[in-house]
Amino acid sequence: MKLITEGDINQYYLQTLCMLFFPRAKFSNTEKLGPDTPVAIVKVTSDETTAYAEASLALGSRSVLKYHSENYRPDEPAQNTRSIAASKAFFFAATEFCGYNPPWGLLTGVRPTKLAFDRINAGMTKDQTVKSLRADYLMYPKKAILATDIARTEAKIIKNYTDKDCSVYISIPFCPSRCAYCSFISYATKKFLSLIPDYLEAMKKEMRLLSAMIKDLGMNVVTVYVGGGTPSTLDEKQLGSLLSCIDECFDTASLHEYTFEAGRADTITAEKLALCKEHNVTRVSVNPQSLCDEVLKNVGRLHTTKQFYQAYELAVKSGIPHINTDLIIGLPGDTFKTYSDTIEKITELSPDNITAHTFAMKKSSALTVSCENVVTEDNSELVKCVDYTQIVTKNAGYYPYYMYRQKNSAGNLENVGFCKKGAEGIYNILMMEEVHTIFAVGAGAVTKLTGQSGKRIERVFNPKYPYEYLAQDREAEHQKLEEKAREFFKITE
Predict the structure, then answer these.
(1) End-to-end Cα separation, the chain, in angstroms
(2) Residues 196 and 333 in one domain
(3) Number of C-alpha atoms within 13 angstroms, CB side, residue 447?
(4) What pLDDT shows up at residue 121?
(5) Of 215, 378, 464, 482, whose CB has the highest number of CB atoms within 10 Å?
């Protein structure tokens, strides 16, 4: 695709808008124009009071030209207003040209609820917030309502925590096999799985150092999340050792939430779940992704629907208070019929949480590398599945409590967590809204230092790969983290 801009315009943002309408578009200033190359030209000018934009979109003999203007606002930087004018002009041209109106309008970022939060914190009512989101970002009414409702729910949780509270994320980046849609730093070969014993020892050392630092900083751990990868890849002995170390480092009995992302049915046993229960885990994820065996096979998910039901029953019998199930909407081979059957059967099981993700093309996933045509311009069936999820979950007594989006998600659609009353995933809310410090342990983990209720954020990255993590001096690396944390929070000996 050829994108030409003139004036004070954020070209990268316009590229992301282009990909809402042309999801496989690639951009090059040197590309020769062919008969199948869309060309977008966006221009912006301004005077003392107004930004004026025009946008044209052409392919072969077809073309559309649209204009839009935005008045400057006292509380909005002039550059933002010019960007809004340019993006709306392009959006109007693209919707007419393609015959498609993206439900989230101009929004391409991962946190739609942040915009609702800003308006709520500014004193807007629900109706005013919805109206503002629709006017400013051209989103569908039901999306504006969804973002506002979730923001209001999250606000009730967030107000219970201060900058002295924190969470701990523990990374287990190993899987028994890798799903075709996955790009997580997770490993399934014998060579990498053989790293697990040494990895656990290094991670436990990091955890002990982190625990001491958190106490020195005068902070209080309120949630712990063991994620991956697939943490239940660990055998019973390895898992028991890990959970015992977590007990040693943190007062798990007093945590507000303790999540173990068990994940795949083919790794879950009654013994592993009993260990989780014994060590005070309060929330466990058992993730089918789909209840259609053909779809599971398409994405290399090495378990069956029958195995999921068996694993789910084990989770129920374990006595762990809360169970979450993850689903993915729009997997290759999935249809409205197969997906609707999945969401209906999951709600019949009645887990406390259901997280419905929209399929996203990850850069390093097997599906992307193999160039399979799994993302198309026609997202009508996907939108239907997303809408049906909200209808079915509402009728079954669930409500949406957190939301985010992923880059390159099909149709620019959302991932939403649904829960029953009082069963919100606290870590998910605190992590996604970036109002809470999260200390991370292990390969691929990212510590997020947060202050002034999210107004100050600094990230500290652990090595991406387990072998890089094992090659590091854990004490030296922890010292660097501690220095950054002390400087961030201005704590002295």
Answers:
(1) 57
(2) yes
(3) 22
(4) 87
(5) 482
Higher pLDDT, 347 or 377: 347
Q: Is residue 369 very low, low, confident or very high in pLDDT (cuts 50, 70, 90)?
A: very low
Q: What one-letter code names the amino acid at 452?
A: Q
**Across 266-295, average pLDDT:** 96
Q: How far apart are CA 125 and CA 24, in angstroms?
A: 39
Q: Are 295 and 433 in the same domain?
A: yes
User: What is the Cα–Cα distance from 395 to 469, expressed in whole angstroms?
Assistant: 46
Residue 349: name the closest of 278, 287, 263, 257 by CA: 287
Among residues 195, 275, 194, 213, the alpha carbon closest in space to that of 241 is found at: 275
Whether 71 contacts 49, CB under 8 Å: yes
Are residues 310 and 424 located together in one domain of the fold? yes
How far CA 488 is from CA of 239, 456, 458, in Å, comes to 34, 9, 8
C-alpha distances (whole Å) from 419 to each of 57, 216, 263, 342 are: 43, 36, 18, 17
- What is the DSSP-derived secondary structure letter of residue 265? G
Whether residue 327 has pLDDT greater than 60: yes
- Tell me, what CATH number does 374's domain have? 3.80.30.20
Q: Which domain holds residue 38?
A: 1-101
pLDDT given for residue 8 in this prediction: 86
Q: What is the four-CA torsion angle of 319, 306, 242, 197, rounded to 10 degrees?
A: 160
Query: What's the CATH code of the domain at 60?
Result: 3.30.160.100
Q: How confident is the model at residue 493 (pLDDT cuts 50, 70, 90)?
A: very low
pTM, full prediction? 0.90
Same domain for 73 and 188, yes or no, is no
Does pLDDT of 380 surpass 50?
A: yes
Residues 189, 283: one domain? yes
In a domain, 281, yes or no: yes
What's the sign of the alpha-carbon dihedral 11, 13, 14, 16? positive
What digits encode the pLDDT tens for the residues 151-168? 999 999 999 999 999 999
Q: How far is the CA of 59 from the CAs of 2, 259, 327, in angstroms?
A: 10, 50, 37
CA dihedral over 192, 195, 197, 203, signed as positive or negative = negative
pLDDT in the model for residue 190: 74
User: How would you classify residue 347: left for phi > 0, otherwise alpha for psi between -120 and 50, otherwise beta?
Assistant: alpha
**Confidence check: pLDDT of 19 > 90:** no
Structure tokens of 322? 């809360």
Question: Considering 65, 81, 101, which residue would you say is the last residue of a domain?
Answer: 101
